[in-house]
Amino acid sequence: MSVTATETNKITLLTADEEEFVVDEAIAMELGTVKMYYEDNPDSCDEAIPLPNVTSKYLAKVIEYYKWHVEYRAKKAPKPVKIKFLQYEEEEDEEAKAFDEALLNTLDNEGMKQMIMAANYLDAKDLLEMLTQAVADRIKNKSVEYVRKFFGIENDYTPEEEAELRKQNEWAIEDLDPDDD
């Protein structure tokens, strides 16, 4: 699927592990960090934009996400008619939702955290919002142990303190979903 038949400007991004990605300007401009660098350094447009906090593995996924969504928006752009706002039909929204879910399904918990850090560093607002909602969904109704493991939080309660807290808040640990790995 291509945005246009004409050639678009390209921007080169350089990851922390020294891999270069050449992407369409429209996709690169979705990333606030890249956009700001590009606007602040107009004379260095031919040089790779360094992204020292993002690895190639996760930049590839960020680019995949924005490439699909930029092309999807272009494909679904309304014809020039007099309407006040754009409303996608239910099936069109389902197509975008299915793509997002497929991307999320490629990420384990560690991958999810790495993607969040990449999206945050890149100021990729739409992606960051989707990822943080996915994390909320993954930890919803899970045990304290699962949430600690997910976020790498050390248990600093003594066994007695933890037992007392569990006793005082029994309602909070009733009917939890099984923990995933």
Automatic annotation (TrEMBL):
Job description of the protein: Involved in ubiquitination and subsequent proteasomal degradation of target proteins. Together with CUL1, RBX1 and a F-box protein, it forms a SCF E3 ubiquitin ligase complex. The functional specificity of this complex depends on the type of F-box protein. In the SCF complex, it serves as an adapter that links the F-box protein to CUL1.
Organism: Gossypium lobatum
Chain segments annotated as transmembrane: none
Record note on quaternary structure: Part of a SCF (SKP1-cullin-F-box) protein ligase complex.
Record domain SKP1 component dimerisation: where: 125-172
Homology family: Belongs to the SKP1 family.
Any one Gene Ontology BP term: ubiquitin-dependent protein catabolic process
Keyword annotations of the record: Ubl conjugation pathway
Record's protein name: SKP1-like protein
Chain ranges of the SKP1 component POZ domain: 9-70
